[in-house]
């Protein structure tokens, strides 16, 4: 069948609130759909079937580095030049640069290092819930799901935790490209975040500490090929990716449990299902809509489609995780689903480096939420909840609950 052409439908308010019917039509029609986001001049190709998405994520014909694109393609997709100082990190790099950049931070996310964070993550979660329990109802995103992971990643990097509200505002702007063509907020965000990181890294150079930022600075000074801009970009990436995935994993996962009270009660009765429950949250309502972008460097044939050179391609992660060829009854939320080979964290060499940390934070969070808030329920009608308008993130704007 021919490739669906969805000029703006994929980014419409109706689809943002409920993308699954459109994803199902896309998967039925073809493995790849062509779209165009209002903030970009060039098309976006979305790989929407599971097996095609896994293949795409491992296909080295699709480049991550934007520097490999010609000037015209760069202009069509990247109209804020100041962002380039925050974009020279491992998610925007191909081997061998990707290998080098990833290796610099991989040691911070080994299973042993992540497991060592368990007591601190538990203490942060307990403290947040102490405050939550003093109230009748809260927005759980503001009160718990956001401050937990941003505190963890900030402490890991050595960034002042008290600046978390600034990180949240900057990240929201970064992940929500303007549809009205006004790029001023994005330019202002890029400059403010860049200035902040330059000042922070200058302090760390002058006064190194036992944190990840200091370790990366030391590697740079000892002759590693990490440039000052790459260093700043890596800290930017870790701050943004280090909390956004977990915020929305917790928020979306709790939304799914509250929408399916039978599954919630089963999890309370069978706490041993917690691990598989979190995996099902990632499949059913994952925190990332689409993979980060890749580009064709020449005309490329993929699953019967010819994608012209210099065009953006992404994997539709949420769509792929609802592919009935892989997941029987994909619209059913089943906390005991086995097997569950979701790709919420991606696949291939760009598989999410922080996945073990996100999983640990989520599992500890849900264990404590269920233990300490036994009467947890929505504080508003679920149909009134709104989802974020973002190219990348699949997450709620707020999650009012009572208990």
UniProtKB/TrEMBL annotation:
InterPro entries documented for this protein: Cyt_P450, Cyt_P450_B, Cyt_P450_CS, Cyt_P450_sf
Keyword Transmembrane helix assigned: no
SUPFAM superfamilies noted in UniProt: Cytochrome P450 (SSF48264)
Stored Gene3D superfamilies: Cytochrome P450
Superkingdom field: Bacteria
Keywords: Heme, Iron, Metal-binding, Monooxygenase, Oxidoreductase
Family named by the database record: Belongs to the cytochrome P450 family.
Record protein name field: Cytochrome P450
């Amino acid at each position: 069948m021919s490739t669906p052409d969805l000029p703006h439908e994929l980014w419409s308010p109706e689809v943002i609130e409920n993308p699954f019917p459109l994803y199902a039509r896309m998967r039925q029609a073809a493995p790849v759909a062509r779209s165009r986001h209002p903030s970009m001049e060039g098309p976006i190709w979305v790989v929407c079937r599971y097996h095609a998405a896994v293949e795409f994520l491992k296909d080295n014909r699709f480049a991550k580095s934007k520097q490999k694109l010609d000037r015209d393609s760069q202009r069509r997709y990247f109209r804020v030049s100041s962002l380039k100082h925050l974009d020279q990190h491992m998610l925007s790099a191909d081997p061998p640069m990707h290998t080098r950049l990833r290796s610099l931070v991989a040691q911070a996310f080994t299973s042993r290092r992540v497991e060592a964070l368990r007591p601190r993550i538990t203490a942060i979660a307990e403290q947040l819930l102490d405050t939550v329990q003093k109230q009748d109802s809260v927005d759980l995103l503001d009160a718990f799901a956001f401050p937990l992971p941003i505190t963890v990643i900030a402490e890991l990097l050595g960034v002042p935790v008290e600046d978390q509200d600034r990180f949240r505002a900057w990240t929201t702007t970064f992940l929500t490209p303007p549809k009205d063509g006004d790029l001023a907020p994005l330019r202002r965000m890029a400059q403010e975040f860049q200035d902040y990181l330059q000042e922070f890294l200058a302090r760390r150079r002058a006064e190194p500490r036992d944190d990840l930022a200091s370790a990366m600075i030391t590697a740079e000074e000892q002759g590693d090929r990490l440039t000052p801009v790459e260093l700043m970009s890596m800290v930017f990436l870790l701050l943004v990716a280090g909390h956004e995935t977990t915020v929305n994993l917790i928020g979306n996962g709790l939304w799914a449990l509250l929408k399916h009270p039978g599954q919630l009660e089963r999890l309370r009765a069978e706490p041993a299902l917690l691990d598989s429950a979190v995996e099902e949250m990632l499949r059913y309502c994952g925190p990332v809509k689409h993979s980060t972008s890749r580009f064709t460097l020449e005309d490329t044939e993929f699953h019967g489609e010819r994608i012209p050179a210099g065009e953006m391609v992404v994997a539709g992660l949420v769509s792929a995780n609802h592919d009935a060829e892989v997941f029987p009854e994909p619209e059913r939320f089943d906390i005991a689903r086995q097997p569950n080979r979701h790709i919420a964290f991606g696949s291939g060499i760009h598989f999410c480096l922080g996945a073990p940390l996100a999983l640990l934070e989520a599992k500890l969070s849900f264990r404590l939420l269920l233990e300490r808030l036994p009467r947890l329920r929505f504080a508003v009608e679920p149909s009134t909840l709104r989802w974020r308008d973002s190219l990348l993130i699949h997450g709620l704007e707020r999650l009012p609950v009572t208990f």
